Amino acid sequence: MRRAVPLLAALVLLAGCSRITGGSATAGDREPEPTRTTGAGSSEPTSPSKAPVDRPKKIDVAAVDPCATLTEAQRALFGATGEPRPGTATTYQSPTCNFSREDHRWGFRVTTVTTTGISWYTDGSFAVEPEHLEVGGFPAVLGRAPGDDEVCFLGVDVADGQMVDVQVSSFEDVPADELCRLAPQIAGAVVETIANK
């Protein structure tokens, strides 16, 4: 039996943090990044007729340290007992943090993105199959890259042109469905932490 199964049972408390509405940590320094499919700039397009986004509040992540987006207790809940490792997500040119697990079966990274919003998941800039979610009351998009069963992406709309991006990666044959169940739970914990700061 997979050792991750008891973890998923322990995460049931966080399951209420997200709902479907339609639609890295690194092992061996593996840091898969999203791949742009267009040459367009990374800024979110603006339009005077664009409807306002329905979110509980605006969270400016420009000054948020991604390594501080999870408390020690939250990290322990996800088995991320290793020291968080800060870095820069080259795709977004934004700060990121890798969270590692002792068992190295899977890991995750959190990026505080200030260069684009979640429309990047749906406007053709990112080659993923998007699925609309709600995480902690915030609009979100879950993305699976076709043909890649080792990673699941999730972006949470926290402010205009900004998002919290969570990437969950497998290092020991963790199924993609499991990675994509974990992503909203991790994102829900992140949103809970930064919304209360």
Summarize the structure.
The chain is an alpha+beta fold and 197 residues long. The chain has helices at residues 4-10, 72-77, 176-195; strands spanning 18-22, 85-89, 94-99, 106-113, 129-135, 138-144, 151-159, 162-170. It has three helices and eight strands; from the N terminus they run αβαβββββββα.
Spell out the key features of this protein.
single chain; 197 residues; alpha+beta; Jelly Rolls; 8-stranded antiparallel sheet; 8 strands; globular; disordered N terminus
- The count of strands amounts to 8
CA-based shape: globular
Q: State the distance separating the first and last CA atoms.
A: 39 Å
The string of secondary-structure elements, in order, is HEHEEEEEEEH
Low-confidence stretches: 1-49
Q: Find the structural class using helix and strand composition.
A: alpha+beta
The CATH topology? Jelly Rolls
The biggest beta sheet reads: 8 strands, antiparallel
Helix amount: 10-25%
C-alpha Rg (nearest Å): 15 Å
Strand content: 25-35%
Tally the helices: what do you get? 3
Keywords: Signal
Organism: Saccharothrix xinjiangensis
Pfam families: DUF3558
Signal peptide: 1-27
